[in-house]
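TOKENISE THE FOLD
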Amino acid sequence: MRRVVVTGLGAITPLGKNIAETWEGLKNGVSGSDWITRFDTEKFRTKFACEVKNYDFKDYFDRKEARKMDRYTQFAHIAADEAITDSGLDLESIDKDRAGVIWASGIGGLDTFLEAIREFVKGDGTPRFSPFFIPKMISDIAAGLISIKYNFRGPNFSTVSACASSTHALIDATNYIRINKADIFVAGGSESTINEAGIGGFNSMQAMSTNNDEYKTASRPFDGTRDGFVMGEGGGGLILEEYEHAKARGAKIYCEVVGTGMTADAYHFTAPHPEGHGAYKVMKLAIEEAGLTPEDIDYINVHGTATPLGDISEAVAIVRLFGEHAYKLNISATKSITGHLLGAAGAVESIVSIMALKHGIIPPTINYKVADPLIDSKLNLTVNKAQKRDVKVAISNTFGFGGHNATVIMKKIDL
């Protein structure tokens, strides 16, 4: 199969509005968590989240354009635009029939849906819905609008698998390039669900932290006092390109995507398999596809959401698969910094893994204070402070409600 490399990166996150700002926050372990500003949280159990700070759509879009886009779609455009610029693609010379877009969102336009229903309920029952309501809400519209903007006429769709959504987007894009269906993809994901429905819904599931007294440090993966994830928002985009195509145009190449894995827990509606069967298998499949051994892996950016069951399950899977090498790995859960970006998490955390490859720095798992006796104490969780390491191969894991597991492996490439 054809080889696939990464030639462009873009992001908008709670740490910053581009890759440079996001990476600065990550390597310094700066918490993106703060009080929610987007709505009144007085009656909500959780009053904090990792919002994109000081975001104003007018910095990016004119009002006419913006009114056709949900906030998650705006984030998609911002991340995709930066990735395309970063890639140095000559948009006039590439074959746009062989350039595609696969863009994920776990939920889609929840802001748009909530606002439309709120306005309907306030009225007299007469359906006065905007003609933009449905197009703004659906989770595939970001992919469609990115393709329209750049006239990319190759494969174009959205992947939806809860928190694994954007990792599945990267995997699909990789495989389409491998089997010669395209040469270039804009792939990634975005999410914006910090609103009454998003916060209230996850509160009702008891999946989200309610530690308002310690909101800055509430996202604490693997810590014995963790009480759930902290909601984040934003987007991450990558340019995936066939290796020879990238080399021929003299592209900057970040890394090669060498392995992918997809499995299902087939266990529970929302809970992970307690023995981590799906997580174990998805990493094993990705390593085998890459032609590597567990001992070749240097770093795992884990799913690590800070849920009581999820962190244990993933740690068990790592020890089972890697054996003694598990204790030589660097492991970090960067959701402790960014919050959980849901459908955008996989793309953003793949970018984190790529930046670790590039810079030789492992971002930390922050807010760690108390060991959990059910998590192997010999694992190097890169707690509270970044560590330097020559990273040659990195894994990014994402797992979603419904038992969806997805893994990608990135490797430094000798040009």
In short: The two ends are 19 Å apart (CA to CA). The mean pLDDT is 97.
